[in-house]
Amino acid sequence: MIELERVSKIFESEDGDAVVALSEISLSVARNEFVAIVGRSGCGKSTLLRLVDGLVAPTSGRVSIAGAAVTTPRRDCGIVFQAPTLLPWASVLENVLFPFRFFGGLDDQVRGRAQALLKLVGLNGFEKRKPRELSGGMQQRVAICRALVHDPEILLMDEPFGALDALTREEMSLELLRIWTERPKTIVFVTHSVPEAVLLADRVVVMSPRPGRIIDVIPVRLTRPRSFAQESLSEFQSCAQRIRGHILDRSVV
Amino acid sequence: MPNVSADTSSTAVSSSLRPRRRSRSHARTIVFPLLALALLIVVWEAVVWLFSIPEYLLPAPSQIFKATAAVWPVMLEHTISTTRTTMLGFLVSIVISLPLAVAIASSPLLANSIYPLLVLTQSIPKVAIAPIIVVLVGAGEISRVLVAFLIAFFPLVISIATGLLATPPELVELGRSFNATHLQELIRIRLPHAVPFVFSGLKLSITFAVIGAVVGEFVAADRGLGYQILSATAFFKTSLAFGAVMLLSIIGIVLFQAVVLIERIFFPWSAEEGRNL
Asked: What chain B residue is nearest to A53 in terms of C-alpha separation?
């Protein structure tokens, strides 16, 4: 579904130095696969996600979705950022429908889908509220609904639960899995929580910084549906240890 | 979902508290200033009578009221004239400021070329160029509106441009992820975000427009409260001049509050967000 072939991204910093954000990244993500990307801050995880979404163009290499090169943001991608980035002036429902202000074709069917999504994340009855009346977790749920409202095949998530407290975070992880089970999608999920990555993903991509590279891809062979009970399983532990090993290893150097 | 119900109750609590708090602050913001004003009038009146200050030097509030009421139809006409000039100057300011601010916010090149010119127009005292404007366009409504506009538009341009440029980059990126065109980004994201800034600008602008209208009337008018002040003082009708000043401040307050009201009715989220003025 998503193909990255030897993708590099070099940014020019303000004093004119070239910063290699990503170096020779090759990765392929299958349809309806859940891939988590883990790494320290500054390893280019977010840049990688923006490349896939077409928000950023690669310096070299090729990013393609379903065989077509990605040049601009595509309609079949939905993106969730670390901050909810809701419009403070618009209601919850209007925020969820926001993509259709650009795509056009806002009709009753779309409204119905938005309502159904809000119900799916437990926000029915909050349609007319303004974002600031909601808690952080609820705001992020709205952002997830917004990313799903046009029923994209690919969902890109950039540390979506990073700003939430630990309990809400765990709850949201399970909720994401539930949504994913009900509406299968290809998900690329950036996080720096190791347990979160193992719990959610089919494969965990471990990245290292300066320059951003993939150092390992770890398949997680845990049965689905996943739950926190699996944290005690040896497969969970060994995956988590392998990821931590890579990250800690690099930090010593 | 347990935390959803918890959230509901907490927002319900806060919204039930809000009106009470608001009504108390209303009492504070309306009653206290009125009391202070009443006290000032009483003291003023007392001082004038106590020291028997002649009316042509400092009239008492009662004398001001009497003198103004005696020629009320004329005063009303002047008031309407000044209000019209103010409103026209204000409207022209809005019409000119919005595209100018959009231009400044849309490209650094335009910003660099427009901005110095804007600052230049502001560094010239408007009172000084008002007579020149009269020479240019003649002594009529147009020259008065022009002076009002020249004073009123600057804060508006600056606040709108600031609001457009202060749009959080995340929101702009969100728009880009939907392939938003520049126009869509402006209309759907930047302009709504700038609304609280626009209203701060409008509040400054409307008060400046009143000043501008009076300056215009000082140099070129046969009506308006500014003209009335000039002609009244020329004949030592100080009470009448004071009456005109009072009417001017009433115009200023009413128009300012009208802007506040429009913001509260049509952009309640902006009124709550931008408590800067």
From this structure: B177
